[in-house]
Amino acid sequence: MHAEVNTALDSFDTLGLSAPILKAIGQLGYDTPTDIQSQAIPHLLQGDQDFIGLAQTGTGKTAAFGLPLLDHLDASDDSVQALILAPTRELGQQIAEQIELFAKNLKGIRSIAVYGGANISTQITQLKRPRHVVIATPGRLIDLVKRKALKLDQIKYLVLDEADEMLNMGFKDELDTILEFTPDSKKTWLFSATMPREIRRLVKQYMDSPFEVSVDPKTTVNANIEHKYAIVKQSDKTEAMARFLELEPELYGVVFCRTRRETQALAEDLLKMGFRADALHGEMTQQQRDRVMKRFKDRNLQVLVATDVAARGIDVNDLTHVFHHSLPTEQAYYTHRSGRTARAGKKGISLAFISNREKGYISRMSREMDISFEPVEVPGSEEIVQARLMKWAQVVLDQKAFDKVPFDLIVQMNLLFEETSKDELIARLVAGELERLNVDSGRDINQRAQQESDRSPQRRRSSPGGYSRSNGSSSSRGGYKKPSGNSGSSSNGRKSRSASSGSSGGSSSGSGGGKKYGGFGKSGRSSDSGGNFKPKKSNSGKRSGFGSSKFRG
Hints:
By secondary structure, the protein is α/β, with parallel strands linked by helices. It has two domains: 219 residues, P-loop containing nucleotide triphosphate hydrolases (Rossmann fold); 325 residues, 3-Layer(aba) Sandwich (Rossmann fold). It has 19 helices and 18 strands. Helix 12 links the parallel strand 11 and strand 12. The two termini are 26 Å apart.
């Protein structure tokens, strides 16, 4: 049986959920279900049929299966009644966190997340206590079953979340093994963004006449996301990324790369330039991954540089931007990536760095996914300088002068500048600040990108432009110079500029043919008294919302 409906109900109250669940949802501040939630929850509450839910990442699938699942559990039965499989540790952790929040008003319901990279002995000890819900990655689950630390013979509900990704990651054999461990009487709920051949094989082999709900992919493209692209050469992408970070100090986002090597290199380059960045990829230990994610969620990092697999399941509130350092190989991944921002009714920007040769791919995605892409220019050095000057000026305005400067000194300064006009005084102050900033002209990487298709491939320049060290010596990025600032310690021992506050501004001077890059939600006044221009963390750690919220749990 198959259903395809695209209109969500107005309220969770209409879906048939129990009062404790509705209370938890209300306490979390959500009242409007997403399409997949409004379609899936009523069927899953019946609990008498296998189920397939097709929807993209970021559409609220965790709540779609988690809320009705909790309503089916019996707290008086100490056996494991529900098993949720997730492809990555991060997704498993986040599902567990949300399940705990959903169940806060349900007495006696206990859950646990088990995954590789964590101490298995600790997990075995934890499993000796009653657990009604187990959230697990496939490999660790099999290890625990084989050690007889976990029994699945009483499982009533099996949830396969991000099933397509589990198969992409090579968990086919593990899934077959796990499904053989579980009783035939269980109900299987499968959620996936796509339905490839291997998923259909799994459905045919292990599921009995499932009810299928499909949310039209076109409806899952979040209207609150602005899709943009900038044309730059591969060798200029790091510099381009740095310029956007410099222009938008309140930016808080994820940068996607294709490979682990690319991810690590970009994070290290940005860190050397003074930006609060770190990498997340599959070669890191669980302890390292947890440490990076904590720093990112605490907004001690401005950007997280990640691979698609490593970022699977990352659910961080208030992301303003998603950057595609490299375009994904499949359109579905673009939707996965972009869906990290603009959640809960807020706005966000998805920006891809592409070559001239990739413009056709952008056009194809635009047609096939019904997305409007806007070409934008990488900020020029003049724009960066103006932004720094505006932040400096705001710092000056925010100074509590009369609390710090003796009155007699103010009188002396008034006498000194008595015959100097306001305009002349401002010009002198700005000239001094420009000299302190020590800014080079910088290259127009937009123009260079336009010329790329007309040139034969050239050997990468040793100093391709961009940032220079404040002492005047050229770095590997050259061009306009890095602003001075205090250093702080990063997670891996390198130095980064400390966080401060400010606002950005300026006008475009590039000649790349795209529109001036326009963000949103620029900060107001800065509270930084140091006068240094550097990427910074938001004072509040949060962004104001745009429009009504939808539950994306």
